[in-house]
Design brief:
The chain has about 290 residues and is α/β, with parallel strands linked by helices. The protein has ten helices and 14 strands. The N and C termini lie far apart (about 65 Å). The protein binds S-adenosylmethionine. S-adenosylmethionine binds near residues 218, 243, 259 and 271. S-adenosylmethionine (SAM) binds next to helix 10.
């Protein structure tokens, strides 16, 4: 017998009698479904994704994300924070699973898995609902392919106070485990929108945004641009091919980051960070006393 349908709530727990399933078997169908979330097909079909780590799960719940399934290691039973999020999950109709280390390792495909992980509902917004305001900076990514780059860009967008990230064309899945890991939790605080190239072009014309393309053939030094004019959209090119001609033609400015040395170009995530912090330099202040 590898599955216990229910157990009494843990000492000091919140009265979730009969609500926690204990699972130790990898062949349990619920576990099989969760493991399948490593595949885009399953994430698309269910509209869900996996996030790892207690703090990240708590932050996501606090920000209103819908948790479908909470999974924690047996060793976490009775811990206050875990019991609290388990009770909240049950109260909202979610599933709570207490699993063995072997099951956690299999789900996360990691030798030292986080002790708390969760399945959340995906959330993106339609581009037509995005109405950029003055002093806002949006990042638009043309066909970004690398999950690590995308995750790093989402994290950087969060840190620099960007308003969101627009994914243009055929991009990597923002809800892949690798991308979510690279965001370090920022996937829950940075709005994401998806659009075809045609829709992005139509939207950027309608909103009148100031679109600054980042391009290796750009004629403008990125530091000489006045980013205070209107809402700014920083448009970044694909890792291999750069920006399409149609996107480059739409840009109000084509900016280049001066380089020296032998490298042809900067990594996409690094280039985005450099552009973004320059574009928001006038809005970013050090907190605390300045030296
Ligand atoms: N072979 C590609 C090309 O010709 O554009 C290189 C693309 S680069 C790895 C990915 C993206 O990062 C570029 O499309 C551009 O948006 C940005 N980027 C990288 N280095 C840059 C630089 N020195 N100046 C402006 N943008 C840069």
């Amino acid at each position: 017998m590898t599955e216990t349908p229910s157990r009494p709530s843990a000492p000091g727990g919140s009265g979730r009698v009969g609500q926690v399933k204990e699972i130790t078997s990898l062949s349990n169908p619920v576990i099989k479904d969760i493991r399948a979330l490593s595949m885009k097909k399953q994430r698309d079909a269910t509209g869900t994704f996996l996030a790892e780590g207690l703090k990240l799960v708590i932050d996501a719940i606090d920000q209103g994300w819908t948790l479908r399934t909470l999974i924690y290691a047996k060793t976490q039973r009775g811990k206050d924070q875990v019991e609290t999020i388990a009770a909240r999950t049950v109260a909202r109709g979610g599933l709570v699973l207490e699993v063995s280390e072997k099951v956690l390792t299999a789900i996360t495909r990691r030798d030292n898995p986080q002790a708390v992980i969760a399945v959340f509902e995906q959330r993106t917004q339609p581009l037509e609902a995005v109405r950029p305001q003055p002093e806002e900076t949006w990042i638009a990514l043309d066909r970004v392919r690398d999950p690590g780059n995308l995750g790093t860009i989402i994290r950087t967008a969060d840190a620099a106070g960007a308003s969101g990230v627009i994914l243009i064309g055929d991009t990597v899945d923002p809800f892949s485990t690798e991308t979510v890991r690279a965001t370090m939790g920022s996937v829950f605080s940075v709005p994401l929108a998806r659009a075809s190239q045609a829709d992005f072009l139509a939207w950027s014309n309608q909103t009148g945004a100031f679109v600054v393309g980042s391009h290796l053939k750009g004629s403008v030094d990125y530091r000489s641009i006045d980013y205070r004019q209107k809402p700014v959209v920083l448009l970044m090119g694909n890792e291999q091919a750069g920006l399409t001609d149609a996107l480059a033609e739409r840009c109000s400015k084509l900016a280049r980051i001066p380089q020296t040395g032998r490298a042809d170009s900067l990594n996409l995530a690094i280039a985005t960070g450099v552009m973004l912090f320059e574009a928001r330099r006038h809005l970013l202040k050090l907190e605390g006393p300045a030296e």
